[in-house]
Design a protein that fits this description.
219 residues; alpha/beta; 9 helices; 6 strands
Length: 219
């Protein structure tokens, strides 16, 4: 496939995701359109759970507090937020805001049916982007690559390789989560950051990481 053909397929995919209403038609309350960001040819891809309400308004993934924490973590590898958003690729397991929990506290987790309805889009994204490093963020995204029920404590700080791409999982950086605030887990996140840094330096040797990781101040 030529570069021009791949770009045409990529733009077609973005268009189909933007107008998709499968979950709405299935009876789920969601708030379209799809929220993704990035370019064909990206070498690093992040995958989150689903966009939040601020992501829909801003039109970009990890826009609010979670994004601030995420890019503080990634900043320790030398990855700048503006550079990453403009040159790499960010997506999620499901592409539209799934609404709030019935309790009104926090966002609703997409149901298995919603995940299944959206999965073909993620499959196409992975095939077209063909990233060399995938960073699944949070339990739902991690479950795309690891068995469901796997403990974060066993995964964060480790990596695996699938279909020529390295997978380095991160916990969800939400302020509502206490997982990343536990000292033992901070050490796991630091190990994950070191893995991401090594891949980043391998993929982009011209971009240098800052000296010293002060993760305690970032969690």
């Amino acid at each position: 496939m030529t570069v021009k053909q791949r770009e045409k397929q990529f733009q077609d995919l973005l268009g189909r995701m933007h107008i998709c209403r499968l979950c709405l038609n299935a009876g789920y309350f969601i708030e379209p359109p799809a929220v993704t960001k990035g370019k064909l040819g990206a070498r690093i891809m992040t995958i989150g759970q689903a966009p939040g309400v601020t992501e829909v308004k801003a039109g970009r993934p990890f826009n609010a507090g979670s994004g601030t924490r995420l890019f503080k973590w990634l900043g320790q590898t030398g990855i700048g937020e503006d550079w990453f958003r403009n040159t790499q690729y960010m997506t999620a397991v499901t592409k539209c805001f799934p609404g709030k929990n019935k309790s009104g506290s926090g966002d609703r987790a997409p149901s298995p049916e919603e995940q299944a309805l959206c999965r073909p889009f993620l499959t196409e994204e992975l095939e077209l982007i063909n990233p060399e490093l995938i960073i699944p963020i949070g339990r739902l995204a991690i479950s795309v690559f690891y068995p469901r029920g796997s403990k974060l404590e066993d995964l964060i700080g480790n990596q695996t390789k699938q279909n020529d791409a390295w997978i380095v999982p991160l916990p969800h950086p939400s302020g509502a989560s206490r997982w990343h605030q536990i000292p033992e887990n901070r050490a796991r996140i630091e190990q994950a950051i070191e893995l991401i840094a090594s891949h980043f330096q391998r993929l982009f040797p011209e971009l240098k990481a800052p000296e010293g990781n002060k993760l305690d101040s970032l969690v």
